User: Fold these one by one.
Assistant:
Number 1:
Amino acid sequence: MNKKIAIIILNWNGTEDTIECLNSIEKNHFKNYKIFLVDNGSSYESVKKLKKLKSKKIELVINKNNLGFAKGNNRVIKKVLDLGFDYFMILNNDVVVGEKFLSKLFDIMKRDDNVGVVSPIVFNYDNKNILMKTNSPGRFNLRKGGGEPWESDLHQIKLRKREFFVDYTSACCWLVRSSMVKKTGGFNERFFAYGEEIELAFRIKKAGYKFLINPAAKIWHKGAASSGRISGFKIYHSTRNMIWLERIHATRGEFLLFLMNLFFIKSPKNVIISLIQSNKFLVLISYFRGLIEGLFTRNNEFNNSKYYKIK
């Protein structure tokens, strides 16, 4: 068995963040890893800087176009599976990792073959002791929109000393068992970005695997470094993909409750949020575009195993 961990990092015009991330990995106590650094259609200057990186532990993969988070990762997951890696990590380029985070995650994975994914706890890069709300662990709730925070009091999560089970975690850092992905498939490539980790988490649960968080493993996430905190891109994809996720996994009763929540709670809230943005019209149009495509795209255009098959 290959105990080396393959670390997959996607870069899209975020070279400075990527270099800081790579530097933090290099300081880790666990040294048995190989990094697959994937440039996802960045500018010429960004790619030029990445090509200057000199390390035997880094293999640079260059995509001519931005394939999105889902497809960009799937292509390299296929590569690392073919190379025989038993474990791989999905890691955002805009994080800084703790010195022991790799060994702490790997220790949990070795202990239980039923654990499919292990994640660290995620702190705010700008406020080092504050947990990232948007990266908090989650639980499934198909009546509201796929998922919701696992625990409302983030301080209680920070106080935990031992690992604990959740339904899913943010894909900003996943240590993944390769044998699991051979059964579940990878990320749904039609999602492109946002919500793909929750959709995959449903398939992981159906396959009988578990998610764990080890609070002894820590990372610090900048968050939204490539797409902006509120942008047309983000609100379009997150809205569309949330509806697609519901259409794939919800029962009829759950989907009806979700629609009520969507139209009477989520939509008014999102319209208000859109109107207070500086680019309000773009954000508003993007929201309604995501809403329409989520509801009216034909089912076979997003719900098909070919979209997450590792090929």
Number 2:
Amino acid sequence: MHKLLTGNRAAAWGARLSGVEYIPAFPITPQTEIIETLAAWIEAGEMQGRFVQLESEHSMVTAAGAGAATGVRVFTATSSQGLLYAMEMIYSVAGWRVPFVLVNVSRGLSAPITLEPDHNDVMAARDTGFLQLHCSTCQEVLDSVIMAYRLSEDMRIRLPVIVNLDGFYLSFTREPVAVPEPEQIRRFLPEFDPGEIYFRASMPESQAVAVLGGSTYSYFRYETHLAATNGIAVYDEISREFARETGRAYHVVEEYRCADAEYLFVMLGSFATKAIEAVDRLRDAGKAAGLLRPRLFRPFPVEALRRACAGKKGLAVIDQNLSMGRGGILHTELTSVLYGEPDMPPVAASFIGGLGGRDISLEEMFEIMDVVIQAAEQGRRLEPRLLYTERELRQIKSLQAVARAERHTLGEGK
């Protein structure tokens, strides 16, 4: 069955097909369409489950963790400031080792305020214990939600998962999406088996989060880390099974024309679809370009990235985030993986683009690749740089001039 779906509705379909039983929710732009869609289906009797609107994202994530601890399949969603508001409980529920799926529709963080996307919100959650899947199309959103439940509920992991999609560029963009038949998904995703570690009304017991010393605390934190690292092997198993069931394969890292490439774009999210066109155009111009896109960001697919980067001459890492005082987060993560390895690219350049929803044009991608090629040929190291045009800078200077003139006029009025 094919439907024309927004990224938000694709996420809702993923939850519906996964047979979620409990949806604690709180609205925030640009995610609200997900929970509106699920609430309408439940009210109309088209979907089973309990929908509850909480008073905040903090309460929502607390309820999600508590619901999963009782052995029900839980889904929730948020964006931007909502994810940050819930951050205290994001850390806590991962420490509880409860499996559920949270869709984050990325949006730039305040201040200043914007409704459009970048990745600083989801990057703020990278060290929480949540696994992370990053999507580039509406089809991938739907499929990733379903796959995330298999990943989260696997006994080798038992951790919550964030499925991330870009606000506006995916959340409100309609694309043709193949919606799997419910029977297919029931074969792929069986009912949630909570095992013996969850609360049951028929078996009363008390549990508590104890105050622990450093040695015991370290043990539990490291156990969570080991469970997260299991995600690579488990994801590979799940991906192969999902491909057999649906015909759609999702590897931990997407490689587009990488095998014979000399230079690679490395990106996350929906803007990578533009890089595919840029690669094709660069190939037509005789430049051996390719695209590398990690789907899994936590756990970080170290070995897959090393294999894909081996023997290349240069990498253009485009981050839609900014770690203040350091640069792009994906660039930092990737270079830590490649450091000290033989046959790795001598140039891995960091470009900061797409902040606050700013578009990245094909022309900028061509220029980025030219810069990286020249640096590799000359053996130069490149400092992180912001993608910004002279025209944009002139606009900012014009606005600053207007603001200064207004302040001067107000001062004379006094």
